[in-house]
């Protein structure tokens, strides 16, 4: 009887050890995935920043052209 209890206990312990090993593997996989996602997010933020900077430059250029056109229209109006 005692032998049977110890045998069952050993089986349960082995199952627990196996399950813990699987969980450790899953944790490692999740860590790798998390690091990969962090890197992607970092790249996205970098891209966003570059786009915002370019947008500012484009808006500045647009304002310059708007002023030039306004000035030319005023000159044309003054000719009439």
Automatic annotation (TrEMBL):
Record carries keyword Cell cycle: yes
Pfam family, one: ZapB
Coiled coil: 20-68
GO cellular component term, pick one: cytoplasm
GO term, biological process aspect, one: FtsZ-dependent cytokinesis
Database matches in InterPro entries: Cell_div_ZapB (IPR009252)
Assigned keywords, A-Z: Cell cycle, Cell division, Coiled coil, Septation
Protein name stated in the entry: Cell division protein ZapB
Originating species: Buchnera aphidicola
């Amino acid at each position: 009887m005692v032998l049977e209890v110890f045998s069952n206990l050993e089986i349960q312990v082995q199952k627990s050890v196996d399950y813990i090993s699987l969980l450790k593997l899953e944790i490692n996989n999740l860590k790798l995935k998390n690091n990969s996602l962090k890197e992607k997010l970092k790249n996205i933020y970098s891209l966003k920043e570059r786009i915002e900077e370019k947008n500012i430059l484009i808006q500045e250029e647009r304002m310059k052209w708007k002023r030039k056109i306004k000035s030319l229209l005023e000159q044309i109006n003054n000719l009439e």
